[in-house]
Amino acid sequence: MRVRPTPEAPFDLEVPVLIIGAGASGMVAALAAADSGCEVLVIEADPMPSGSTALSAGLIPAAGTRFQRDAGIDDDAELFAADIQAKAKGENAQALVDLLARNAGPAIEWLADRFDLPFSVVTDFDYPGHSRRRMHGLPSRSGRELVDRLRASCESRGIDIICNRRAVTLFRDEDRITGVEVESPDGTESIGCEALILACNGFGGNRDMVARFLPEIEGALWFGHDGNKGDAVIWGEALGADCHHLGAYQGHGNVATPHGILITWAVITEGGIQVNVNGRRFWDESQGYSEAARAVLAQPDGVAWTIFDARIAAVARQFQDFKDAEAAGAIRTSDTLDELSAICGLPEGALTLTLGAIPHAGADNFGRVFGRPPLEPRYCAVKVTGALFHTQGGLSIASDARVVGKSGDVFPNLFASGGAAVGVSGSGDSGYLSGNGLLAAVVLGLIAGRSAAQQTTKEQAGT
């Protein structure tokens, strides 16, 4: 990744707004810019739009939406912002938290009203740290559906998404970005632009950067998108941009192994537990799935067994990933705990002792309070490990998503959204509140797209 002066030769192609990355953030930015009347081009390194979004459950937290009201849920942006800060122990910039919490609801309703995305609220279980049920998802509860619907919306509005194009160089004229150089199967080409939006996610797929900034999770399974090579941060450092919270990330301690399938954390929030290979619990599972990654990896062999029951499985089955795990044989079942212990290779009687030690009222020895019915036959188990999903630190941005330099000044026509920008997950793993990744992707994508279009229009008008 390079930053160079603007070449003397003309660009091969010029567009008003150029977006690097065709995940949720890049495509939302494209829709927002086009909706504002601006011509836009999206370039994507992969053969098709995907990004980290396609690997997720596609759930976007938002407060005060009509979907919540229809479900009888009373919520607002102030409460949402307080939940974000509480999970991150106040480490986030309050202005950014407020920006995301305030605009998430309008963003969801804009996508639903303008582009017919059929959102609904997950109403049958709670996510750790959220004081209200505010996760909005599409019918399949899959990120792949979100990506596909956003791509279809772009296509229907004539927005060009050119794949197999990896941006390798940014061209600059002092503090302005003038264009990029991209590599394609046919060679290199240059694209000039009046505004550039970096929507190329984080750096979890760059092992050197993970070792540099996230050494405690360096050896974890990488469960994110391989294209997350840290391009935005690398370019930002070369430009003199300010970067923040590069040690923040979202982990997950519930990935079925060796199948490599994400198991929804609903199996825990509904009353499930995790045990190690000795059949013993080892932490307060209610803290959250991000910090679960390190907790699980610290156990013998770096694995755990997640234990739940048929009632919980019925809740989890609304997620396609869980159905895929069942189809792959990752979910073991039995009518007795002793038989389940044998199936899982756990010590005889271990699960019976462990479940029998869970109190019916009050907190257990780890500080967890169980508010759900105790597990009962038919019992279920899945072998899991810890994984790194995506990074949460990135380029500092202003309220219009423009990138901020180390001097405190903004770059006039450079924007960042989604994983390219700093998130609201604090400085490590425990600050990640469920949905923070797509929250930043969608809201900052919308803001960046509108801001870039507005600035381009002003410049074309000479104001």
UniProtKB/TrEMBL annotation:
UniProt entry tagged with the keyword Oxidoreductase: yes
Keyword Flavoprotein: yes
Source taxon at top rank: Bacteria
A matching Pfam family: FAD_binding_2
Obligatory cofactor(s): FAD
Protein name: FAD-dependent oxidoreductase
Gene3D superfamilies in the cross-refs: FAD/NAD(P)-binding domain, Succinate dehydrogenase/fumarate reductase flavoprotein, catalytic domain
Cleavable signal peptide: none
